[in-house]
């Protein structure tokens, strides 16, 4: 049950302690957790950009109103997909699911490390993608799925209980 508590205790953190850095070793560990996610036919269409530069975090926040908390964040991870990763077309069909699984692994790993994190969406919003593509020098084939602002929580937030028995259907609808 302790392992399940990690899942039940995960929450979206949008305010971070000022001046407390998230080291590259922790960022690397978070991305390693992301790369441990399941992937269709093990294509692993993900790519990750780790950002710790305050100026770049501020520039991302300016361009992404839904991610304004980047101004307070110590770091961010941009989860991207490469739909052209393989010749079979598997990545083209499943990159969003694969990169979403990687994102959830990162969010859970952040919780395990005592970090605060929040999933801020980019894809499929072409306007948001267009605002950050040049800033991050993204190749045309790479699609940013989301930005995960990270830092040490500045506030204590209780997790939300999202369980609704009425949404569970046994055998049939």
Characteristics of this structure?
single chain; alpha+beta; NADH Oxidase; five-stranded antiparallel β-sheet; 5 strands
Please, could you describe this protein's structure?
Strands 1, 2, 3, 4 and 5 form a five-stranded antiparallel beta sheet that branches. The protein contains five helices and five strands; from the N terminus they run H-H-E-H-E-H-E-E-H-E. It has one domain: 3-Layer(aba) Sandwich (NADH Oxidase). It has helices at 2-9, 24-34, 54-63, 90-112, 126-132; strands spanning 46-51, 75-81, 116-117, 120-121, 143-151. Helix content is 34%, strand content 15%. The mean pLDDT is 97.
Tertiary shape = globular
How many domains would you count in the coordinates?
1
> Spans with pLDDT under 50 lasting ≥5 residues?
none
Which range does the strand content fall in? 15-25%
CATH architectural category:
3-Layer(aba) Sandwich
Secondary-structure element sequence?
Answer: HHEHEHEEHE
Coarse structural class: alpha+beta
Helicity level, as a percent range? 25-40%
CATH superfamily: NADH Oxidase
Number of strands: 5
Q: What would you report as the Rg, rounded to the nearest angstrom?
A: 17 Å
SS summary, helix count: 5
Distance between the termini: 29 Å
Mean pLDDT, rounded to whole units?
97
The major pleated sheet works out as: 5 strands, antiparallel
Which CATH class is shown?
Alpha Beta
């Amino acid at each position: 049950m302790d392992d399940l508590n990690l899942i039940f205790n995960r929450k979206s953190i949008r305010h971070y302690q000022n001046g407390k850095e998230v080291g590259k070793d922790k960022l690397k560990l978070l991305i390693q957790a992301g790369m441990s996610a399941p992937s269709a036919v093990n294509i692993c269409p993900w790519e990750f950009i780790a950002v710790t530069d305050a100026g770049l975090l501020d520039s991302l926040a300016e361009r992404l109103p839904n991610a304004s908390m980047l101004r307070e964040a110590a770091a961010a991870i941009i989860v991207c997909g490469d739909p052209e990763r393989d010749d079979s077309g598997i990545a083209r069909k499943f990159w969003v699911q694969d990169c979403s699984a990687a994102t959830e692994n990162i969010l859970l790993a952040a919780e395990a490390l005592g970090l605060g994190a929040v999933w801020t969406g980019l894809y499929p919003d072409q306007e948001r993608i267009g605002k950050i593509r040049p800033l991050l020098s993204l190749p045309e084939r790479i699609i940013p799925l989301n930005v995960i602002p990270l830092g040490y929580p500045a506030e204590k937030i209780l997790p939300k209980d999202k369980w609704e028995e009425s949404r569970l259907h046994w055998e049939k609808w």
